[in-house]
Amino acid sequence: MQRYFTITQLTQEFDITTRTLRFYEAQGLVSPSRRGRQRLYTPGDRTRIKLILRGKRLGFSLNDIREIIEMYASDPGETGQLKLLLARIAARREELLEKQRDIELTLLELDEVESGARARICELGTRLSPEKV
């Protein structure tokens, strides 16, 4: 197992910018050691970066991600971390389902408005084929 990773190795592996890694460092999410001006990341830092990026893809905030990651190292440890993760997943799922319902209602409303506009065009005697409208 590799002992340290450079910023270049991690940015290439995860397809992120050095600015992103430095931001995570500034936020206290990773803590690379330094050799001169070079940042050296541990396998633990690499795992944290992987978890941060997964959390971001799932739509979690950095604060949520930080809380979930940091719980692993403190009481109640991994069990508490997993329970918190499950709670955050349930909340995120409900948020997405609500957005989905809103989108479905908006699409229905657009269908109604479109239908009304087409009917009104017909009433006005203007003949347009469906492709031209």
TrEMBL record:
Q: Which Pfam families match?
A: MerR_1
Q: Which residues form a coiled coil?
A: none
Please provide the record's keywords in A-Z order: DNA-binding
Q: Where is the HTH merR-type domain?
A: 4-71
Transmembrane domains' residue ranges: none
The family database entries (SUPFAM superfamilies) matched by this protein are listed as: Putative DNA-binding domain
The name under which this protein is listed is DNA-binding transcriptional MerR regulator
